[in-house]
């Protein structure tokens, strides 16, 4: 069901979307066109940079937004200018029936791109249905090719399942596949070159992400973080010289480079040392229905009360979206006096 701007239709929309909404533009001129939706905070591994090893309390299933509620929100968001949706978690593939949600999102007028971020462990069996439903792009997390290091980082076994997920995705030429790698100086810096060669052999873009203060165990430090500049130098020296790929799209977190000595691309998400805040066009919806304007934001706007069949109110949701966008800071502030990490860890916000 597609909810058009002048059609309350029969989705439970108590109030129609009337006049075209104002753009989702913040105080710094950034127009927001991307939405990241966490469908669960549950995950089947426990990566050090994302969540604590023990004592994790996941959101009760009855507190998660239903797929109906997510679709209602995206209908309102699309009418307000959102064009891209990325499904995240936790591990999104732990939630049953995800292909049904993707199929419904693909039908919403204005949504041009549907992507997902996953650890890939549950991917092989689900991928055909996800692609058939309308999944267009996929990011798979892979931080090492060593089973021992994988277990140190994720505190679980599972490297072989991740590799099988990558192999399955490689069999779908239409799928925009990328590998995400987060480098911790004390754990997997030695694996970077092998990861680059692995991705290059398979014609996959690999992106290296700086360690951010979003880990549930609060172990982040400058000493553990490896900057994108250091990784570029390492790869250029030992694999091949790199050159930027065209002008940078400032709405995207990664700056991509290509090898001068042959095929292959590497991206760097320098979230700490050189953040892309100036072009950020993202909003985030947590699994229980809280809207956030930044990973590091302190405020949340609760849209869940307005998303049930009985209480649906498009105008109220739109107002909360506008309030959220207008409250967005110019930058996340890491490294500035007074910066404190958010209370939520990455898995609770949505990666």
Automatic annotation (TrEMBL):
Residues 27-248 form the Radical SAM core domain. It is an enzyme of class 4 (lyase). It holds the Pfam family Radical_SAM. [4Fe-4S] cluster 1 binds at residues 43, 47, 50. Coiled coil: none annotated. GO terms for molecular function: 4 iron, 4 sulfur cluster binding; cyclic pyranopterin monophosphate synthase activity; GTP 3',8'-cyclase activity; GTP binding; metal ion binding; S-adenosyl-L-methionine binding. Its EC number is 4.1.99.22. GTP binds at residues 36, 86, 117, 178, 282-284. Gene3D superfamilies: Aldolase class I. S-adenosyl-L-methionine binds at residues 49, 90, 141, 212. Pathway: Cofactor biosynthesis; molybdopterin biosynthesis. InterPro entries: Aldolase_TIM, Elp3/MiaA/NifB-like_rSAM, MoaA, MoaA-like, MoaA_NifB_PqqE_Fe-S-bd_CS, MoaA_twitch, MoCo_biosynth_MoaA/MoaC, rSAM. It comes from the Bacteria. It catalyses: GTP + AH2 + S-adenosyl-L-methionine = (8S)-3',8-cyclo-7,8-dihydroguanosine 5'-triphosphate + 5'-deoxyadenosine + L-methionine + A + H(+). SUPFAM superfamilies: Radical SAM enzymes. [4Fe-4S] cluster 2 binds at residues 277, 280, 294. The keyword Iron-sulfur applies. The keyword Nucleotidyltransferase does not apply. NCBIfam families: moaA. Belongs to the radical SAM superfamily. MoaA family. PANTHER family: MOLYBDENUM COFACTOR BIOSYNTHESIS PROTEIN 1, MOLYBDOPTERIN COFACTOR SYNTHESIS PROTEIN A. Catalyzes the cyclization of GTP to (8S)-3',8-cyclo-7,8-dihydroguanosine 5'-triphosphate. Monomer and homodimer. This is GTP 3',8-cyclase. It comes from Aureliella helgolandensis. The gene is moaA_2.
